[in-house]
């Protein structure tokens, strides 16, 4: 598959004709949708939560400048250095400047679709800075030389046999298709990256203006290590991530994990 907009139609036709791809996607989607429906059925207030989230977002959009300035003020008070970027180029260059200031050669990353949108990995690689994806799905895709397949589950199209072949080829480990063994391999490979990287780069799920809080939700533990092990942490987020208060955050957290991965996150 050629990753170029000019080949979009060809890629679509090839994917639609791929029976193996159809099988693994159907299996993955069915499992998540069934689990999500089961959880939602147990939550009589689900629709009210969605409506509340919509009202909060509409309020933020109507007062965006106020909340962005409040967020900046409170982040700064918390010791965070805020950088504004008007486009992808500015965002990349801001991160590069931070990296060079701190003599960064390796940057571990937790999953960030914003970093994908701005083309951060290739940009850093071209400037001799090695980005290392630490989300398991993103790590698999990076080893394969491919972008994320899906914004939530980057390697959802891959079977355990696919992953076993990628690890054997790229990491030089014995082939296995056992999920637990594959997870152990990834953990062992990434542990040293966390401990030696000079910078950690994350996205953010929300940014709370009231408290100057960057909120990152995960289920693998890699974001925790990405934000704490390296000396420098860069959070890359769009202005749409701002919400007014911690009370509002409760609404979004209850919606987020169920809608994205069909997992409960009580709050």
Total strand segments: 7
Please state how the strands of the largest beta sheet are arranged side by side: 2-1-3-6
SSE succession: HHHHHEHHEHHHEEEHEEH
Which descriptor suits the 3D outline?
Answer: globular
Number of helices: 12
Domain module count: 1
- Separation of the first and last Cα atoms: 42 Å
The pLDDT mean sits at: 94
What is the percentage of strand-forming residues? 5-15%
What helical percentage do the residues reach? Answer: 55-70%
Query: Segments where pLDDT lies below 50 for 5+ residues?
Result: none
- Rg calculated over all Cα atoms: 20 Å
Q: Strand count, sense and closure of the main sheet? A: 4 strands, parallel
Structural class: alpha/beta
Please tell me about this protein's structure.
This protein is α/β, with parallel strands linked by helices and 267 residues long. 56% of the residues lie in helices and 9% in strands. It has one domain (11-261). The protein has helices spanning 8-16, 19-41, 46-62, 64-77, 88-101, 113-117, 120-125, 136-144, 160-171, 179-196, 222-228, 246-261; strands at residues 106-109, 130-133, 199-202, 206-208, 213-215, 232-235, 242-243. Strands 2-1-3-6 form a four-stranded parallel β-sheet. It has a three-stranded mixed β-sheet with strand order 5-4-7. The longest helix is centred in the first third of the chain and has 23 residues, at 19-41. The relative contact order is 0.14.
């Amino acid at each position: 598959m050629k990753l170029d907009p000019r080949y979009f139609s060809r890629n679509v036709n090839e994917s639609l004709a791929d029976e193996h791809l159809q099988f693994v996607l159907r299996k993955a989607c069915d499992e998540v949708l069934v689990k999500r429906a089961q959880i939602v059925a147990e939550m009589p207030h689900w629709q009210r939560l969605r409506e509340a989230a919509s009202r909060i977002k509409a309020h933020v959009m109507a007062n965006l400048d106020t909340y962005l300035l409040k967020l900046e003020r409170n982040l700064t008070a918390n010791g965070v250095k805020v950088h504004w970027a008007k486009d992808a180029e500015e965002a990349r260059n801001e991160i590069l400047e931070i990296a060079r200031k701190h003599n960064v050669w390796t940057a571990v990353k937790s999953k960030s679709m914003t970093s994908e949108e701005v083309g951060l990995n290739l940009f850093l690689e071209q400037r001799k800075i090695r980005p290392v994806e630490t989300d398991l799905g993103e790590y698999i895709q990076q080893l394969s030389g491919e972008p994320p397949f899906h914004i939530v589950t980057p390697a959802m199209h891959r079977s355990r046999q696919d992953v076993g072949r990628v690890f054997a080829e790229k990491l030089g480990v014995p082939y296995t298709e056992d999920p637990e063994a594959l997870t152990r391999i990834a953990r062992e490979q990434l542990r040293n990256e966390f401990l030696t990287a000079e910078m950690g780069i994350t996205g953010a799920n929300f940014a709370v203006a009231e408290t100057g809080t960057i909120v990152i939700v995960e289920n693998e533990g890699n974001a925790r290590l990405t934000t704490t092990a390296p000396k420098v942490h860069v959070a890359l987020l769009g202005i749409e991530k701002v919400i007014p208060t911690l009370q509002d955050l409760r609404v979004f957290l209850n919606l987020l994990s169920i809608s994205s991965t069909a997992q409960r996150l009580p709050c």
